[in-house]
Design brief:
Elements lengths: L2 H11 L2 H12 L5 E2 H8 L3 H13 L3 E6 L2 E6 L1 H12 L7 H11 L4
Antiparallel strand pairs: 1-3, 2-3
Length: about 110
């Protein structure tokens, strides 16, 4: 990931509703969530939700797939991995004892 892509992803997440959407999608992997259900759960009008989902998709951290008449949204885990690695790959001057707590926090959840 390059700086421009990272900035786009972080900017997409720097808005409350979009951050809530992304966290909802992360919780619902690998099944994903239909667009209408996302709007209902977060109490956001569907047209507004469509705009938010479009921003997240263009930023590379959400993807969609069509199932019959529904569009199912997923957190793009490859995009999340790329963003996370971009943010921490140069961490701590290569001193594993400094970033070990970060890894320990991530390991149980994943």
């Amino acid at each position: 990931m390059d700086s421009e892509s990272a900035i786009a992803a972080l900017a997409a997440l720097a808005q409350g509703t979009r951050l809530d959407v992304f966290r909802l999608l992360i919780r619902n992997e690998p099944t994903g969530v239909a667009a209408g259900e996302i709007a209902r759960q977060l109490d956001v009008p569907q047209n507004t939700m469509s705009a938010h989902l479009g921003i997240l998709a263009r930023a590379g951290i959400v993807r969609s797939e069509r199932h019959s008449r529904s569009i199912i949204y997923h957190a793009d885990l490859d995009g999340l991995r790329a963003l996370t690695l971009f943010l921490v790959k140069d961490c701590c001057a290569g001193s594993p004892e400094l970033y070990a707590p970060l890894l320990a926090e991530l390991t149980p959840c994943c």
